[in-house]
Amino acid sequence: MTKKAILCVDDEKIILHSLKAQMKKHFGDRYQYEFAQSGDEAWEVIEELHRDGIKILIIVSDWLMPNMKGDELLIQVHHKYPDIIKVMLTGQADREAVERTEQLANLYRCLHKPWTETELIETLLSGLGDKE
């Protein structure tokens, strides 16, 4: 059976810790959870998982990060891995960035900070749909 992963990208460690706690609480060990603090680090994780035969099901990415914004990352990911579900988690993305990501990266959903655990889990569950 292929291992499956969820990747979270945010430049704030506290956000990544919160996401991990909420996902593990709901999904337990069903998925491998990976975390990156930048777009560049996310690409390193994506390539490593791909080499190891681990399928990334969902990427949850912040928008406002140093060097590479979340919309840029998600658009690049979509071009190389179109089957990955893309979720933006942001407190600062402008409407144009969200619309651009919807159009160019098939953005599944945009969650706004502060999010609720229910909102996150419902988004992940519906995004995973038949991929589980």
UniProtKB/TrEMBL annotation:
Transmembrane segments: none annotated. SUPFAM superfamilies: CheY-like (SSF52172). InterPro entries: Bact_response_regulator, CheY-like_superfamily, Sig_transdc_resp-reg_receiver. The modification 4-aspartylphosphate is found at D62. The keyword Phosphoprotein applies. Keywords: Phosphoprotein. Residues 5-128 form the Response regulatory domain. The keyword Glycosyltransferase does not apply. GO terms for biological process: phosphorelay signal transduction system. This is Two-component response regulator.
